[in-house]
Amino acid sequence: MRNEKDLLQLMNAHFEPLKLEIKRKQNVSVEFKKEELIQALSFLKSHSYRHLSTISCVDWPEEGEFELVYHLFSYDDLINISLKTRIKRDPGIFQTAKEIWPVAEFYERDIHDFFGVKFKGNDNLEELILENWQEIPPMRKDFDTRKFVNDKYEWRDYNGQKHTD
Amino acid sequence: MDKNTQTEIFFGPNHPGVPGNYGINYEFEGDTVTSARANAGHLHRGFEKLMEERIWIKNTALVPRICVEEPDINEMVYAMGFEAIGEIEVPRRADYIRSIILELARIQGHIFSIGGNAAGIGQYTVMHWGTLTRDYLLDIFEEITGARVYHIYIRPGGVRQDIEDETLDKILDLMDELENERFPDLQKALFENPNAQKRWQGKAVITKEEAIEMGATGPVLRANGVPHDLRKMMPYAAYDDVEFEVPTGENGDAWDRIKIARDDMLQSIKIIRQLINKIPDGPVQADLGNGLKYKIPKGDAYVKIESKRGEYGYYMVSDGSLKPYRVHVRGASTPLGLYGVREFLPGTRIADVPVWAKSLGICPPEFDR
Amino acid sequence: MANDKKSIFSPVTAFKNLVKKPETVRYPAESNDAAKRYRGFHINDLEECIGCSTCQEVCVNDAISMVEMLDVPAEEGQRNERPQIDYGRCCWCGLCVDVCTTGSLEMSRDYSYIDLDPDTFIVTPAENDINQVEHPLGYLRDQSSDLLDLKRIEMEMLEPEERIDSFIEIVEGFSKEQAEKEASRCVECEICTETCPANMNIPQYIRGIFDDDLEESLQQIYEDNPLPEVCGRVCTHKCEGVCALSHRGEAISIRWLKRYAVDNVDSAEYKQVLGTEKIEQNNKKVAVVGAGPAGLSAAHYLSVMGYQITVYESKEKAGGMMRYGIPEYRLPYDALDKDIDYIESLGVNFVFNTRVGEDIELKELHENYDAVFAATGLHNGRSTRVPGTENNNVYQAVNLLADIARGKEVPVTKRLVVIGGGNVAMDIARSMARIQKDKYGEVDITVTSLETEDIMPADQEEIDEAREEGIVFKPGRGPKEIEINEDGSLAHLCTNCCVSVFDEDMNFNPTYDNSDIENYECDMVIEAIGQGGDNSYIDDQFEIEYAGPRIKINDYSQTSVNWLFAGGDIARGPDVINAIKTGHDAAVGIDKYLNDSLK
Amino acid sequence: MIDIIYRIGHFVLITVFSMALGLLFMGIARKIVARIQKRYGPPVYQPYLDVLKLFGKDAITHGFIFDFGAIMALGGVIATLFFIPLGSWQLYSMEGTVILVIYLLAIASLGMAMGTVGSGNPQASVGISRALMQMLGYELPYLVILFALIYRYQTSSVWGLMQAQAGSFLNWNLFAYPLMAAVAFVVLIGMMGKKPFDSMIAPSEIGSGPVVESGGKYLGMLLLQKSITIIIELALYVNLFLGGAENILIFTFKMLIVWVLATMFGSLFPRFRIEDGIKFFWKWPLGIAILQAIYIIT
Amino acid sequence: MNNNFVKGSWQEILDWAQNKSINMLHYCTGCGAIELPPTMTSRYDMSRFGIGPAATPRQADLLLVTGYLSTKTLRRLIYTYEQMQAPKFVVGFGSCTINGGMYWDSYNTIKQLDKYLPVEMYIAGCMPRPEAILDGLLKLKKMIADGEADGYQRYQDNLEYYHQNQEAVLGEVQRTQ
């Protein structure tokens, strides 16, 4: 039954994480280089962190990077660990975590749908949520949803009564 | 299975047996499903994109619309995310009121899904009773928050308005009525009904390893005898002040999950009684200043709570501006609805597909967002 | 967990419902109406609503837009716009009710509106909702659901005992956190902008403070007001009177925020921030008579436009009434100099100790300069001319204040009486109180005024602070006569009761009741009942139109003589901000006039 | 010649009467189920309105077989009316009507089957395969009972069996052979496709089974067919076990009682899966029926 | 689908029958569908008015569009609508069907329902209460009885307008007849 500090020491011992942080009680976040992340995932899985909550993706256009965050949880330590890594925005390619957690295939497919990140090794990356979507992936920061809506649809003006200043 | 003996059925999205607007396209041979795939995305409104366009307080109105069965869970996780990043202290009374609201939401969620499951196997009487009972809970919600379903009541920093004492008494009366009249009826009509037991026992089995591997939590995991409940593992709001047991099942089938739903409700009633007796006085909303200018420092947090279907979490990132930078919603039934359908549906009988879908509590708007 | 025995007969309990009454609510016959707090359709009290559009800003679905209401007057502090709600967007969240500054927008318990034509789902709520039917009130905002931050940030001030001993500035100013917290209270409804005589971009510069971007604030301020340090301290802040938050809570301290923004920008960076490092000159010359607020304001804007400005000032320093009328504890000279030095650094040259009309004629200015802006202000105190005022122990407030400002020795006695109810009376009373405390160790000053306390022109804060400093007020008294002893010293001031100050159509004609006489012993009387101006330097040489006591000017501060512009107290009073406004208009007017796009 | 006109008139009267009565019974059933579910439910004459509306609506045909299926189902069921005594009304009462009735009922189901196959919707075909399997399920015990009765009363005409129970109510078969009556009651619920055995029209599994593709007048015809089927099966049960009745009123009353009991019993139990349903039929009802038959034979 | 209407009294009888018994398609397109169970079941019991759920479009007369429509659902809704038999009616629930509602700036939902399907009436609410739904349905029954509910007729008359709008949003749409 490790506490937050032991977990961080464990991470330090086996990898060179870029940043270690205890965010709140039972909540830890560690940032890895992209090469190390997948080993870290399987390492943690073998150390009681068997629950993968989800995989999140955050778009940082100024730094030209996507940030992938893997959220794991251990039923023994009762600690939530978020493993972060940064990948370049334009090729936007990362390895799949399918072999470690088969369910990751769908989280990756969802991220592909919305961010356009390609995961090597995950072959079925076709549309999951959207349906024949032609624009750039919608969750990217440079997709302006209000402009898109203005071009594709129009709003009702209640035959002249709606007063839009 | 060669092609000519195989037929494909579009089970949903327009189908009474499917939970919500969601499709399962499965192929079957004889009366057994051979392969299946989820046809999700019908309820996609791009919540996460909309949230990035709106200041913090506006999202409190948008967030409950994500999962329609349990709006309060979303409001709570959104508020907790804001408070986690902003390190905001919530007054104790607000914690208590939040827990009361969450437990009431759990009861109405469970009674509604028990009704849904019963309708799946043809027991319409229990469906009518379930929805009727839920409606009495909605009356209580309407009295506390001012709306039946979308309460927009739990807000970053506390809750919107205080609960009057006579509403608390009404809640206690309703709890007694549930425990002494409505649930015993339900127990006899459904849980001691031989047909129902036959229809649910041994169906849609998901073992402990499969559940943990898939990341499924809540009743799906607890049906295998594992008392994992976030209210105990990572206590939030006022759950550290109350005692309750975590109901578990043995063999992880639909029957155990529905029994857990019933026992969860009984525990919720116990929790609500304790909360109401011990509720402290004091303010219900931390002073965060001007609502149009809520602002928290740069940072991110993954917060999660125990919804009736399991772990419901948000990953929130703030860049210190007036709007959230990124909010990622992890619905409780995401692994089941997308991955579980492909892995665990094949092999079940056609008659059991609605039983499979409804007993696992697949709620499509959670993964469509 | 009940033991789930299987029995075929246990479901039979359901049959008992056959005999019981069904629990259906047989709507529409029976109906359990909505709960007390139900969020139904909107209703709005159109009188109470001020059209501040905060509800539009908080609306999640852009459902609220503001609509012109012709039958509603757009007077001070409110617009004639009212919210229009589009029920094709609204989600009944009630945030607009929580944020409504006046509390006029509320929700009824009505929820049913059905129509074939979708275009009828839009309404400007009045006292009845979209169904035009009276319904009980539903959701009501309360203290914890209120989204506005109603409490003002406390400004630290010197204690009365401490501040009576010196002329140090009373108001200490905001710290960074205080300023940002106060700036966060603003809902950016821009009602203050419309009320401010100079139409300053108040929400913009407050937002600059909130975003910790003081450069932006400075740019926004200098667009309409070149003397922010002054206005940050002594402005009559009409904006705070109409601030949307003042309806339910305390207004935002706009004046002190302006001061915080300007205090925290180093004057060295002004030029770089305001982009006035190099201004291309257009070799036209304009003369400004009088370096008061109006003159300085015109000088600043004209020099920014590239004109060559010369300011003629009769006194030895620039500032006019700001320096010589307002005591240092309200407006420290270093703050005043910071503004003036910046204006000077723009290339404006000042000519001191030269009174136009004596040392130089207005005609010469007319020949040597392309245009002239007269802003000489009102520097001569007016007297009540009751018997006894010719005695030499009776002084004019304006002259005393000027001497104090110059640091000269000022005659002060143990007991003195001030006649007058405006800000000048407060200034002289509190200044003399300081000098008395310093000289005699204790304060004995009485202030009498025609007006009763509620209609006294002075700011209420000033009156309260003066009372804290030991000054006694005798409002509603008319000065009748000053008793003089044989040796020329004063015995007492004899006053009667002033029944009313203004007659029905509001012009000044006081009525007295002589039966109620009160005498106040004093050895010195100071009159502070208003100032007059000496416009002889104009009248002797040019025909000019007047509007009552003041010179008649148009929107560009142009007088009837087209090359002569006028501003400040001689053209439009009564306070600093109006002077600045007339100066700014004059600058624009002169610019137009010299490009002959103005007759 | 008059005899023919009389029989045709009689036949038309019986058909209209049983349709109207069948729909009324369905209305009553809805009311009862509603009351159990703590609500008021639609008015009792609602089925008439449903049928009238359905005939007013457009409908899409899926080809000749689809149309013919519906007509055949309705026709087959009306044909069986000839041979069932409704109280004192009786068209044909020769020997062998029991077998004939069972045979004609099968035709009606086959007609519906043919119609749904024509519709081409996979859910319909699953539904109809379930219906036929279920028929297989309840036919077996029912035949055993019928043969036992025929053997007992040495007549194979329904009229004859009904006459055999004349006299006091004591010698109704219900009291003579109570076990057989109970089995027949359970089979009756299966034949009418009421609640525990309605997996063939399970809306949540296969979107209301065979009728998934039929709207408008096809649905109207199937509704009428269902109403007449209800009357036929109730009439059979009342004739065989409650000794028929002298006049139509008492007969209707008896049918009503049996119908209310079947509805109430049905509304409590969720539906069987199809194979459990058949196993259920072949386990208890078949066993008891065989025991009863052996008892009668010896 | 040439539906020949026999004018005169027979039509009135049919309208009368239609308004007495309406089958509502059991398809919850949007989040407003959560208020349908309380309306259909014991608490408000809309079957008192002869309105009941129907499992398939063939048997349904009434299509409730309960709230927003994502483009994916819109495509399926159009197929469903075209499978339904005349006389058929569409009722729009809540603000999302009028002018986009809460998702007015969402890239995946349509903003005005009546550009894609003929709508008989709209019920205000987000989402409408069961009582408001019953008010709407009672008004619909009156409209049907008076023969004013002619949405399907409007759909036939300007088919081109509806098809164009649908294709503008969905690209190509598979047409049945």
Walk me through the structure.
Chain E: Belongs to the complex I 20 kDa subunit family. Chain E: Keywords: 4Fe-4S, Iron, Iron-sulfur, Metal-binding, NAD, Quinone. The complex is a heteropentamer of chains A (165), B (369), C (599), D (298) and E (177). Chain A has 165 residues and is an alpha/beta fold. Helices cover 27% and strands 27% of the residues of chain A. In chain A, the strands form 2 sheets. A 5-stranded mixed sheet of chain A has the order 1-2-5-4-3, with helices on one face. In chain A, strand 3 and strand 4 form a beta hairpin. Chain B is α+β, with helices and mostly antiparallel strands and 369 residues long. Chain B has a domain of 228 residues: Cytochrome-c3 Hydrogenase, chain B, CATH 1.10.645. In chain B, 48% of the residues lie in helices and 13% in strands. Chain B has 14 helices and 8 strands. In chain B, strand 4 and strand 5 form a beta hairpin. Chain B is globular. The mean pLDDT of chain B is 91. Chain D is 73% helix and 0% strand. The N and C termini of chain D lie far apart (48 Å). Chain E is an alpha/beta fold. Chain E has one domain: 3-Layer(aba) Sandwich (Rossmann fold). Chain E is built from 7 helices and 5 strands. In chain E, strand 3, helix 3 and strand 4 form a beta-alpha-beta unit. In chain E, helix 1 packs antiparallel against helix 5. The termini of chain E are close together. The chains are: A alpha/beta (165), B alpha+beta (369), C alpha/beta (599), D mainly alpha (298), E alpha/beta (177). Strand 5 of chain C pairs antiparallel with strand 5 of chain E.
